[in-house]
Amino acid sequence: MARTRCDRTPAWAQLQAAYAATGKSFDLRDAFVQDAGRFERLSQSAPLVFADLSKNRIDAATESLLMDLARQSGVAEHRDAMFAGDKINNTEGREVWHVLLRTPAPASNDGSHRATELAKVHSTLNAMLAYADSVHADAAITDVVNIGIGGSDLGPQMAVVALDAFATSGKRLHFVSNVDGHELAAVLKKVKVESTLFLVASKTFTTIETMTNANSAKAWFAAQGGTDTARHFAALTTNVAAANAFGITTTFGFWDWVGGRYSMWSAIGLPLAIAIGSAGFREFLAGAHAMDEHFRTAPLEQNLPVRLGLLDVWYRNFHGFTSRSIAPYHSALRRLPAYLQQLEMESNGKQVDAEGAALPFGTSPVLWGEPGTNGQHAYFQMLHQGTDVVPMEFVAVKKARHDLALHQPLLLANVLAQAQALMVGKSDAGGHKNFPGNRPSTFLLLDDLTPASLGALIALQEHRVFVSGSLWGINSFDQWGVELGKVLAKDIEARIYSGDASGLDGSTAGLLARLRA
Ligand SMILES: O=P(O)(O)OC[C@H]1O[C@H](O)[C@H](O)[C@@H](O)[C@@H]1O
Question: What residues sit in the active site (predicted)?
Answer without folding.
Answer: 346 (proton donor), 377, 486
